[in-house]
Write a structure and sequence with these properties.
There is one protein chain. The protein is mostly beta strands and about 250 residues long. The protein has two domains: about 1-20 and about 230-253, no CATH class; about 25-230, no CATH class. It has one helix spanning about 235-245, and strands at about 1-10, 15-20, 25, 25-30, 40-45, 50-55, 60, 75-80, 95-100, 105-120, 120-125, 130-135, 140-150, 170, 195-205, 205-215, 220-230.
Length: about 250
């Protein structure tokens, strides 16, 4: 964790302020359940406004608020991405966008940001039959696997992202015909039959992310995702400005 220490000179008093420069996760304010042209979400990412939408064939749907593995959460209570065995970074509780995917057709999911974000991290849970490609994103260069439940037995999240044929832009399950139904509070399985769980960094600076979903098999899929990022210096300066504006009461002697 990087820390920035500032000293504020207020008359004869010097006040040190230490501010953590750490990852922040998507804070959702709303999720509209539905498929193409209907499904949407909105929230903030370290002070940056974020909106999401679906276009294309009506096979991917954002899901309503609930506690199931494919449900959404907007009250910051989901422990889905707290497990260091599969995700990096982690957070004790957060929000998440739940989804259901029906095979044999593609969709385009768009996430837009009110200010550019650099190297955002995409976190996915319980992915089986769906493949996700970030190749349509303007400015996309590559993905970096930060953590995941893929293993030498050939199951879990795909560490090769589809290989060079896909420009290393693909996130998928190594063996989509094996599944699990671990609830959000449960620890993602790292051995045996399992779905794909993991965190990938999307390298670059983006005003929007575009990812295409496609089928890996004939069945439906349910899971959830979120994003995180490290606040930029510009975003951090907003918090510094807020600290400067805060009234400081001098202790009487």
């Amino acid at each position: 964790m990087k820390c920035v220490t500032l000293s504020l000179a207020l008359t004869s008093t010097t006040l040190p302020i230490t501010m953590a420069h750490s990852d922040v996760f998507l804070d959702l304010t709303s999720v509209t359940p539905g498929s193409s042209g209907v499904g949407a979400f909105s929230g903030t990412l370290g002070g940056i406004a974020v909106t999401g939408s679906i276009s294309g064939a009506p096979v991917l749907s954002f899901n309503a608020i609930g506690s199931g593995l494919g449900d959404s959460t907007i009250d910051g209570s989901s422990p889905q991405f707290s497990h260091s065995s599969a995700f990096s970074p982690t957070t004790p509780t957060t929000d998440r966008v739940g989804f259901t995917y029906l095979a044999f057709a593609g969709n385009l999911v768009t996430m837009t940001f009110s200010s550019p974000v650099t190297d955002p991290v995409f976190h996915i849970a319980n992915m089986d039959w769906m493949a996700i490609s970030f190749a349509p994103t303007p400015g996309f260069t590559s993905l970096t696997l930060l953590n995941g439940n893929g293993g030498p037995d050939g199951d879990g999240i795909d560490p090769a992202f589809g290989g060079p044929a896909y420009g290393f832009a693909l996130v998928t399950d190594m063996m989509p015909f094996t599944t699990d139904s671990t609830p959000p509070a449960g620890t993602p399985p790292i051995t045996g039959d399992r779905s794909a769980y993991g965190s990938v960094r999307i390298n670059g600076t983006f005003s929007a992310l575009f990812f295409v979903t496609d089928a890996m098999g004939p069945f439906s899929d349910s899971g959830s995702f979120t994003i995180s990022t490290v606040p930029s210096a510009a975003t951090l300066s907003v918090f510094v400005a807020a600290a400067l504006a805060s009234p400081v009461r001098r202790r009487s002697r």
